[in-house]
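#onboarding

Welcome to the new folks! Below is a worked example of what a typical request in this channel looks like: someone posts a single protein sequence, and someone else replies with the predicted structure as tokens. Don't worry about understanding the tokens yet, we'll cover that in week two.

Example request:
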Amino acid sequence: MDDLIGELQVTASDYATRFRWRVLSGDRRRVLREGTGDNYAMAGRLLGDAMQHIVRDRARNSVGAV
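Example response:
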């Protein structure tokens, strides 16, 4: 099972600041989940939640697997 990489990117313009988050596979080849948040705290929380969901899904899918 490969590792997860969490990215949080901030972009700013004259009108707004955007916080984009992504969860990548350990080899950075696949984006597993992504989204945006209205502020840094929200985006960070969403990123953490997404990573936890992926870990739980992997654990649930590996039960009984050989």
